[in-house]
Amino acid sequence: MPSKKGIAIIATLILITVGGFVHAYQSGYLFPDYLTVFHAGSLTVPLQKIGEQFSQSHLGIRIAYAASGSVEAVRKITDLNENCDVLAVADYNLIPKMMYNDSADWVIIFASNEMVIAYTNKS
Known about the structure:
Blueprint lengths: L3 H24 L5 E8 L3 H14 L3 E8 L1 H9 L7 E3 L5 H6 L24
Parallel strand pairs: 1-2, 1-3
């Protein structure tokens, strides 16, 4: 028959183990949550910078990036029925044109840019 001291040690070890698993579960270490991002390849650097800040304030959530062309990213959702949490494309017009019927009903424009091509008769 185990002594009272042995039972106390076993009970303490069980409590520590269970407490460790509870903490690991609540922190997301046992079953990490993933945030899946489909994005245009040209947005890789800014999205990774935003992702680093997000990860610091949301411990346990890991970001899975999938870079491609913007049209390909949209078609992963519309044609292949793949799921993502965030879709970031270089041309926001693709979302209303290709996704508004079934896959999306709103869009956020968070950045834009323009390019000018200049030339002369001597170019």
